Amino acid sequence: MKSLLKTIGVLFILGLFGIPAVFLVLLSLLKAEFSREKNKKRSGRTVLLTGGKMTKCLQLARMFHDSGDRVIVAETSLYKWCGTRFSNAVDQFIIIPEIESDGQSYQRALIDIAQREQVDLFVPVASPKSAVYDANAKPDFPDHTEVFHFDADIVKRLDDKHQFIELSRSFGLSTPESFHIDSHESLLSHQFNPTKKYILKKIDYDPVYRMDLRTLPHDGWEDRVRSLPIGAQEPWVLQEFIEGKEVCTHTTTRDGNLNLYICSNSSPFQVNYEMLDLPNVKEWVRSFVAKLGGTGQISFDFIITKDHRVMPIECNPRTHSAITLFHNQLDAVSAYYTSANASQRFIPNKRAGHTFWFYHELYRLVTSKSRKQFLVLWNRMVTGKEAVFEWNDALPFLFNNHVSIPYQIIKRPLKNVAWEKIDFNIGKLIYQGGD
């Protein structure tokens, strides 16, 4: 009953706010009629993106479109109403199979698109689940298509929270203690250092378990871990808990070069981004990607200790939502081109300010517990940049929030899995076992 009431309540609120959103879109369409770009020069390139449900895909689509590229976006049927599909930046939207069993049908569909549409560049805007399948398909893409993604063995190693820490240590970089846990017994018998605390995390991405940040050992921890799905096929990592400031980074790297770089504050559920100037973090990232080599997109989460040590906690070999900080520097997309000037490096400029998602901030605003907190949130909404909405490209805001999300909510009961929350940033519902 509680779940049903939550569903009805959310659908009612999104429906209610959908009315002014429609008027906002109509106003933007009217405005666009008087400022429509004419005879935009085309580059002759075709770019294929995946992950249309996510704002980061929309951001990249806008960047590639601005450079004159023809942009194709591929997404699965559950997200067929995603906002990116209706963006002015997207020339073609193609529905592809969901990833099932060995992912062959998903991979084959991407390769077929690249062949049929003569795709020059494929940039996977991958989810944690799809990143490795995108990499597995890389060798089978036609010769005329460059796949801007690390090889499969690198993706798997970086995605594994324990292997990533071991790799960083082998590069001579600062790291926390890390232990691979593949059974309840190995954890229950672990000899904890009494001077340290530890965090237990599932090695495979899990949107629900990742929110449990209780440190070990704690009262009753044995009963807690016995209830977790720990095993050889579902390994976890026991990582030293580091106190300090949490930050995240995104890097677009070609042949080990730092072509595009972002650093922002972070948290377990981060939906606000603003560029930070932290030279020690940038140097850690630069050293890592130089030693790793290869071409792709790579994101890190760090803790900065009180004595300014940079301690990595995990790595994601895929696009980061912080890419929205390039909303006013669309030319930064050249970081993805083979022909990009090797000396050209992109970071968000001061005018980028900070990005946010309207409905996340609205929820925080109405649930704020003090006048001071309310004013901070209000100021953030007034002075920041809503990550999806653009006056000359407003339909994605309407469809992302008021069509795609409600469609997913209505479809979710058919899958027999209750949803936990909505992430408007990645354009999807968060639920146990999701990607």
List the helices and strands and how they pair.
Layout: H1 2-33, E1 46-50, H2 55-66, E2 70-76, E3 92-96, H3 104-116, E4 121-123, H4 130-137, E5 146-147, H5 152-159, H6 161-170, E6 178-181, H7 184-188, E7 198-202, E8 215-216, H8 221-226, E9 236-240, E10 245-254, E11 257-265, E12 272-274, H9 279-292, E13 296-304, E14 310-316, E15 354-356, H10 358-366, H11 371-383, E16 385-386, H12 395-411, E17 419-423, E18 428-431
Parallel strand pairs: 1-2, 1-4, 2-3, 4-5, 15-16
Antiparallel strand pairs: 6-9, 7-8, 7-9, 10-11, 10-13, 12-15, 13-14, 17-18
Helix pairs in contact: 1-12, 3-4, 4-5, 10-11
Give a verbal description of the structure.
This protein is an alpha/beta fold and 435 residues long. It is built from twelve helices and 18 strands. The chain has helices at 2-33, 55-66, 104-116, 130-137, 152-159, 161-170, 184-188, 221-226, 279-292, 358-366, 371-383, 395-411; strands at residues 46-50, 70-76, 92-96, 121-123, 146-147, 178-181, 198-202, 215-216, 236-240, 245-254, 257-265, 272-274, 296-304, 310-316, 354-356, 385-386, 419-423, 428-431. A five-stranded parallel beta sheet has the order 3-2-1-4-5, with helices on both faces. Strands 6-9-7-8 form a four-stranded antiparallel beta sheet. A four-stranded antiparallel beta sheet has the order 11-10-13-14, with helices on one face. The chain is globular. The model has no long low-confidence stretch (mean pLDDT 91).
